[in-house]
Amino acid sequence: MTIHIINPNSLVHVTEGIARAVAQIAAASPVPIQCHTLTDGPPGIETQAHVDGVVGPMLTLAKGLNRDASAFVVACFSDPGLAALREQSRVPVLGIAESAVLTAMTMGQRFGIISILSKSIPRHMRYIGAMGVMDRLAGDLPLELGVQELADETRTFARLLEVGASLRDAYGAEVLILGCAGMTAFRARLEAELKVKVVEPCQAATAMAVGRVALARAR
């Protein structure tokens, strides 16, 4: 049995970053954890059309993995196809955005989201609203960097510091959420610099998946 983490974009380096981010969780997991790249996906999920377009291919990939699956993690902050994959699968399905928000709310009263682009924010607002936790959101601010641009670590971290400090100081965020799976490498450094809790969504969802596996065994 395996926890399968699916990166719905086609960037292998993003999948590799996810694997590194969850390595310590994998070491403590009662079942193996395996990361997958959706080769049919775009090189970054940045629009609603991207979100909608990856659902079919992702469901097909997950269907092929279902036989040995203990859980699935959808590793995109738009949680594409989350409801459809839950409908298709017999095991727990965790989305990194939903998991990150739920985790952040256990760490502080108000959370802030660091998004990649301004056009990502309306999707996040719809999702936070659907979750019924809008009153816990301090703010959502963009880096104005696309998924592929996040590979420039110096530029990305400088923007993360700037935007994160604004969410902390001007918006009152007690916890920050990294709003893209392409930001996995920066959680610890950002937390150390800003002196505020930072949630990396792939870690949050994977930890929840491990917990669901353990809970199923206990029951």
Name some characteristics of this structure.
single chain; 219 residues; alpha/beta; Rossmann fold; 10 helices
CATH class of the largest domain: Alpha Beta
Sheet-strand content, in percent, reads 15-25%
User: Which sequence of SSEs, written as H and E, runs from N to C?
Assistant: EHHEHHEHEHEHEHEHEH
Give the tally of structural domains: 2
Radius of gyration: 16 Å
Strand order in the sheet with the most strands: 2-1-3-4
Q: Which ranges are low-confidence, i.e. pLDDT below 50, for 5 or more consecutive residues? A: none
Please report the number of helical segments: 10
Question: What this model shows, in words?
Answer:
- This protein has 219 residues and is an alpha/beta fold.
- It folds into two domains: 2-96 and 203-218, Rossmann fold; 98-201, Rossmann fold (3-Layer(aba) Sandwich).
- It has ten helices and eight strands.
- Strands 2-1-3-4 form a four-stranded parallel beta sheet, with helices on both faces. Strands 6-5-7-8 form a four-stranded parallel beta sheet, sandwiched between helices.
- The protein is globular, with a radius of gyration of 16 Å.
- The model has no long low-confidence stretch (mean pLDDT 96).
